[in-house]
C-alpha cells in the first residue's frame, strides 16, 4: 500500500464562507492517495502552518480590513510573491486581482498577484444572484454547478487588455489555444444565455502559476471537483 501524502490547506477565516470550504476539503479524505488537513487562518502564525491558502467569498472591503487588523496583509503579499499556492473564490478573486473596478471611492485595497482586472458585482447586486452550469474542461465533460452571488466579472486578462470574454462561436477544449500570450490562462466559462446568442461567453475561472481564482462559490455546492483540483495543483507544483 502506498504512503498517503499529507497537505495542509488554510482557509482565511475573517469573513465569508470559510466553514463551507473547510468542510469540502475535509470530505476529500476519502481519497486513498492524499490526506487533507484544513484549518482556519486568522493570524500569521496559522498561515505559517499551511501548504496553501484559500481566500473565500464574502465582502472584499471587509476582508481587506480584516487582513489589516489581523496583521495578515503583508504576510499574504509575501506569500503570493514567493509563489505559494492561493485560491480565491468570488471576493477572493477580487483580492488576488491586480486591478478592481466598481469599488469604493479611492479604490479597493488588494493583495494582487493575478494580472487581471475584475469588476466588483459584475453580474449585478444580491438580487441578481443566480446558478448556472460552468464549463471547465479540466474537470471533465460534466459541467460544474456554479453559484454566483454578487460575483465579480473578469474584465481583462492582462496589461495587453485581452477582454475576459470568449468568441460566441467558440467552445474550446483547450483555452490556451485562444489566449496563448496572456500570463493568465482561463480555465472555465459560462456560455451565453439561450435568448442572448449574440453575447460572448464569460470567463469565470483563471489560473496563473500557483494562483487560482473563481468568480463563483464552489464551496456552496456538494461538488468537490474544484477543491480536489486545487489540492492536486498544490501537490503537482510542490
Automatic annotation (TrEMBL):
Top EC class of this enzyme: hydrolase
Residues of the active site: 90, 217, 219
Residues engaged in binding L-glutamine: 58-60, 120, 149-150
Reactions performed catalytically: L-glutamine + H2O = L-glutamate + NH4(+)
Single GO molecular function: lyase activity
Domain of life (superkingdom): Eukaryota
Keyword Transmembrane on entry: no
Pfam families cross-referenced by the UniProt entry: SNO
Cellular component terms (Gene Ontology): cytosol; glutaminase complex
The entry's keywords: Glutamine amidotransferase, Hydrolase, Lyase
UniProt GO BP: pyridoxal phosphate biosynthetic process; pyridoxine metabolic process
EC number(s) recorded for this UniProt protein: 3.5.1.2
Family: Belongs to the glutaminase PdxT/SNO family.
PANTHER family: PYRIDOXAL 5'-PHOSPHATE SYNTHASE SUBUNIT SNO, PYRIDOXAL 5'-PHOSPHATE SYNTHASE SUBUNIT SNO1-RELATED
Protein name (database record): glutaminase
Amino acid at each position: 500500500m502506498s504512503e498517503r501524502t499529507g497537505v495542509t490547506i488554510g482557509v482565511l477565516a475573517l469573513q465569508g464562507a470559510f466553514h463551507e470550504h473547510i468542510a469540502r476539503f475535509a470530505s476529500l479524505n476519502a481519497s486513498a492517495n492524499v490526506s487533507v488537513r484544513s484549518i482556519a487562518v486568522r493570524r500569521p502564525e496559522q498561515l505559517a502552518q499551511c501548504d496553501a491558502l484559500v481566500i473565500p467569498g464574502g465582502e472584499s472591503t471587509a476582508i481587506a480590513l480584516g487582513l489589516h487588523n489581523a496583521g495578515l496583509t503583508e504576510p499574504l503579499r509575501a506569500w503570493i510573491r514567493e509563489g505559494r499556492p492561493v485560491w480565491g473564490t468570488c471576493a477572493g478573486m477580487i483580492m488576488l486581482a491586480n486591478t478592481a473596478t466598481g469599488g469604493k471611492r479611492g479604490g479597493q485595497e488588494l493583495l494582487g498577484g493575478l494580472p487581471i482586472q475584475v469588476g466588483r458585482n459584475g453580474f449585478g447586486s444580491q438580487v441578481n444572484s443566480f446558478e448556472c452550469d460552468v464549463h471547465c474542461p479540466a474537470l471533465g465533460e460534466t459541467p460544474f454547478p456554479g453559484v454566483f452571488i454578487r460575483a465579480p466579472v473578469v474584465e481583462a486578462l492582462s496589461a495587453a487588455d485581452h477582454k475576459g470574454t470568449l468568441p460566441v462561436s467558440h467552445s474550446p477544449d483547450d483555452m490556451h489555444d485562444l489566449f496563448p500570450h496572456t500570463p493568465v490562462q482561463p480555465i472555465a466559462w459560462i456560455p451565453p444565455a439561450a435568448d442572448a446568442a449574440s453575447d460572448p461567453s464569460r470567463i469565470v475561472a483563471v489560473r496563473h502559476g500557483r494562483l487560482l481564482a473563481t468568480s463563483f462559490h464552489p464551496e456552496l455546492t456538494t461538488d468537490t471537483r474544484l477543491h480536489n483540483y486545487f489540492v492536486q495543483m498544490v501537490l503537482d507544483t510542490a
